[in-house]
Amino acid sequence: MYVAVKGGERAIENAHGWLAEERRGDTDVAELTVPQIREQLKLAVNRVMAEGSLYDPDLAALAIKQSRGDLIEAIFLIRAYRTTLPRFGASVPVETGKMACDRRISATFKDAPGGQVLGPTFDYTHRLLDFKLAAEEDVPSAAEAEARTAATPHITSFLQGEDIIQREPVSDDAPGDLTREPLSFPAGRDVRLQSLARGDEGFVLGVAYSTQRGYARNHAFVGELRIGRVAVEMEVPELGFAIDIGEIELTECETVNQFKGSKTEPPQFTRGYGLIFGQSERKAIAMALVDRALRWEELGEDNVGAVAQDEEFVLSHADNIQATGFLEHIKLPHYVDFQSELELVRKLRREATGKMQEAAE
């Protein structure tokens, strides 16, 4: 006989205590500090900030420590905290063309105007374990190169000068805000980009990869990938002009895609776009590929039935917090539901057994 398991506050408190003990680990090993996580696990911190929609390295590092390194749980903590913050206003659009670049590469032009900067990247490293890192000694590093402070023009601006890449429409309309308004369909490109920026990196990567394997195939070149810092400005009504309120690190990717033309557009290049908090180039590139695939209707292309072209499927399933909540709720008590299903199956079995016996007689 199945019975409902009973629990209470004491069991929950014990679970919390056990969790805290597991989080701390062996007390003979020095405790990991929030500054250590912030400074030495920057890529994890960047992901939590990007998918949590809150730029604060200290809070992201704290969330990673509290979640024992479970980044989706850390993202959940950051989003929950974000909902408690007051909203003072909105910043003006950042000028990524004025970015102080730590990294800036192009796969389309070898001699890119403004030069290429390899920057801090795994791209040119051997994928071999470096056991010197386990020696707990400071590893000598090369002298840091200073980030360029001069404005670095976007590669696509040169293509636009030749009028061989589609010009992006300019609008004075305020963009949507997924943090305050629920997602609805059809979604504008502004909302799609927000959803992809907040979306799970693995999911967006998988959808982007599908476009490269032939599903909604749209050959893309990385026109430019840049990582660096930009100033954030906010207009103050009392002053009548915008003031600099801080600086954030961003990763920006623009892809250059083939376009055969349509009844209303001549053959030209089109773009995919990705913009992410911190250094997160894999996510930015994946975001740009999916963004371009979702523009099929706007550009008058054929829908071949690929997942990457299905706006509702992609955006509805990209959010890892929603996915986690719906998936993990099934481990919570469903005793009444299961008892009703159990009684139904028993009843159906009795009826089926009775019919089989009648047929045998």
Explained architecture:
The protein has helices at residues 9-24, 34-40, 42-52, 57-66, 71-82, 155-161, 189-198, 201-212, 281-293, 311-317, 320-328, 335-360, and strands at residues 100-105, 220-236, 241-259, 268-277. It is α+β, with helices and mostly antiparallel strands and 361 residues long. It folds into three domains: 10-82, no CATH class; 96-318, no CATH class; 329-360. A four-stranded antiparallel beta sheet has the order 1-2-3-4. α2 (34-40) packs across α4 and α4 (57-66) crosses α5. The radius of gyration is 26 Å and the shape is globular. The relative contact order is 0.13.
Keywords:
alpha+beta, 12 helices, disordered N terminus, 3 domains, globular, 361 residues, 4-stranded antiparallel beta sheet
Poorly predicted parts: 1-5
Number of helices: 12
Provide the gyration radius in Å.
Answer: 26 Å
The proportion of residues forming helix, as a percent range, comes to: 25-40%
Strand composition percent: 5-15%
Tally of DSSP β-strands: 4
Instruction: Please report the distance between the alpha carbons of the first and last residues.
Output: 32 Å
Characterize the quaternary organization of these chains: single chain
Tell me the layout of helices and strands.
Elements: H1 9-24, H2 34-40, H3 42-52, H4 57-66, H5 71-82, E1 100-105, H6 155-161, H7 189-198, H8 201-212, E2 220-236, E3 241-259, E4 268-277, H9 281-293, H10 311-317, H11 320-328, H12 335-360
